[in-house]
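Issue: ligand-bound run for iron/sulfur cluster - logging full I/O for the record.

Environment: standard queue, default settings, no custom constraints.

Inputs:
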Amino acid sequence: MTDAATTAPRRVVTGYRPTGPLHLGHWAGNVESMLDLQADPAYTCFFFIADWHMLTTHYDRTEELPGFVQGLVLDWLAAGLDPARAVIYRQSTIPEVAELALLLGMLTPLGWLERVPSFKERLRDMSERDVANLGLLGYPVLQTADIAIVRGAYVPVGEDQVAHLELSREIVRRCNRLYGEVLVEPQPLLSETPLIPGSDGRKMSKSLDNAIGVRDEEDLVRATVRSFVTDPQKLRRGDPGRPEICPVFALHRKFSPADVDRIEADCRSGALGCVDCKTLLADHVVSAFEPFRARRAELAATPGIVEEVLAEGARTVRPIAAETLALVREAMHFS
Ligand code: SF4
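Outputs:
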């Protein structure tokens, strides 16, 4: 093993595609896990805005990119991500990532990419748009470069994403077999991601138009909560309900922890009606995000804050990236 591999700190890397405002599903699935990692002294966190990855599906909407990047950084900062404790940067400001992706792409067999289920899933889910492009097929190579360029040792993933990371690990292993141990093989850092359903009962998602946004104003939050489907057998107060199949109850688990046992019992007995149950949920969601919204408004009124944070992040990452790329170039006889 080279110094680069053996001396790597416990770096954690995770990125997020800037394709629109965050919703409660992102909050519970990503943001809270990033906050936990940032608070853990065992890790050095690298959180990046994956703007090149945004192109894999939104290459024809780049005019939206500046606003989405700005909005996402403000969301992260308002949520509590702290540039003093985590490196926050924008992927496209680190050109070394692109060169490493090009080099890794040369040694990645096409068959490995074609068998990635999410490639076919994306094609199917976005069948109304033409996204069958080289960028989408090759996104695991770019993802590998994102992790490897900062010598990331860990990547937070849910159970369902371990296979995605495994492909990055395979690419790194192939690179190390061919050219020597130049890259760090990342390990999955399993995180529990609670299932957050949207108003139609499916997984909360921007594209399904079933989401509650973290920036949504109170009136909109209340209207969206009112629109949630519930147990179809519970038509009125007095009817016994089945909280285990109700998306409103799934959100209560997350946002009403102190009341969840009572809600469950009262739903089952029929004592609680769905209208009151939803009002209670809306109260809790609104109050949970009040401090976030106030903090975000303050940050949004601070000129230059996003640019400053991203510039500082790039200043930290560029030397690390240059060092990694130099090792790879040398190992591949490009130095
Ligand atoms: S009372 Fe609440 S948990 Fe029970 S079915 Fe209605 S909305 Fe769902």
